[in-house]
Amino acid sequence: MKAPFEIADLIFKYLNGDLSVEENKVLQDWLNEDIANQITLNELQNKDKMEESLQFFESIDHKAAWENINEQIENPVIPHSFWSFNKFFKYAAAILITGFVGYAFLHKKNNADTAIAKTKKPQTLKNDVLPGGNKATLTLGDGSVITLEDMENGTFKKENGVKISKKEGQLVYEILPAESNSTITYNTINTPTGGQYEILLPDGSKVWLNSRSSLHFPTAFSGKERKVELTGEGYFEISKNKQMPFVVEAGKTHVEVLGTHFNVMAYDNEAVSKTTLLEGSVKVGNGENKKLLNPGQQAIVGSQIRVRAADLEEAVAWKEGYFQFDNEDLTTIMRQLQRWYDVDVVNEKQIPDKHFTAMISRNNTLSKVLKMLEMSGELKFEIEDKRITIREK
C-alpha cells in the first residue's frame, strides 16, 4: 500500500497530465482498491466541491490539522514535484489532497458511505448490473460458431494449417510450419454488449476488442498486405513487417501501418470514428483524403479528416480497465455504459446537457459508477430492469 503522500503526488501528476505509464498503473491499482478512493479522485476534479473544501480549509487551524495528519502517517516525505505549482494552488492543493487521501486511507469505508449519503435524496438503484468481462464468439471458416467463455484453456481447433487455442482470456493463432501452404480461411470474433477479448494474430500482432465490436481476419496473412476489418473499437499492437503493411478497414476509415501501437474507435452509433496513435506512424484515410499521424495525434474521420493532439490516456482507458471522462458530455458517457453493462437509457433523446470529469474502474457495478456521477449533485439515476432513468435534481 502506497503512503498517502505518494498517492497525493500521483494525483497531482494525473490532474496535470504528467503521469508516466508505470505511475498510471499504480494510481489505477489504488483506485481499484476501494470505491472511496475513486470518490476521492472525483471530488478533487469537481470544481464546486473543491471550492467548498477550500472555504472549509481556510476556516480550520492548519497547524493543528497538519499535526493531526502527521501523527497518523509514519515518516511522511513530500515529493519535490509538490512545489512546482504556483503559490496559491500548491497551498490549497497540498492541504486538499493530503486531507482527502489521508482520510481515505484511514477511514475508507466511512468515507464512501458518508460521500454517498450526502446526496439530497435516498438513491433508488434497483436490480444492480454487474460489469462486463471476457466474452466473445468466434465464427470459423466453415460457419460454425464457438462461445469462447465456455471453452477451457488449450487448443480447441486446427483449421487449414493453423492451430487455434485459448489462453487466459486470449485467443491465439499459430501457423503450423508443416502446413504453412494450406488454404487460408477467414475467422470473425465478435464481442457482445458487456464483452471484451484479446486476440494474438498469426503474425504476432495483438488486438484488444472492446464491447460490441468485431474483427474479421485471415487465419494466415499472405500477399502484399495484412488486412483485417473492424467494427466497434479495437486497440492494436502490430508486429513490424515492412514488406507487408498492416491494414485496418473500419467502416469508411482506412488505416495503414508498418508496425505500431494505435487505437481505432468506429462504432456505428458514433458520429465520427477516431484513430489514436501511441507509437510508430499510421496513415488514415476515408477514400481519396489521407492523413499521416505522428505519435500523440488523433485523426477524427467523418466527411473530412481532422487531426488533433490526442489524450492518450482517455483513448486507451478502456483497454486498461477504466472509464476516463475529461469534460465528457453525458450522452457520450451513457453510450459507453450501455455498451459495457448491456443496459438501455430511458428517454435517450432527452439526456441532460451535463459534462463530467472522472476516472472510474470498469470493474465496478453499474450502481457504483452512477453513484460517482451523482456526486456532481445535479443528477439522480435509477436502475430498473436493466434500464437507466436520469432525473435532474
UniProtKB/TrEMBL annotation:
It comes from the Bacteria. It holds the Pfam family FecR. InterPro entries: FecR, FecR_C, Ferrdict_sens_TM. Residues 188-283 form the FecR protein domain. Residues 322-390 form the Protein FecR C-terminal domain. Signal peptide: none annotated. One of its GO terms (molecular function) is sigma factor antagonist activity. This is DUF4974 domain-containing protein.
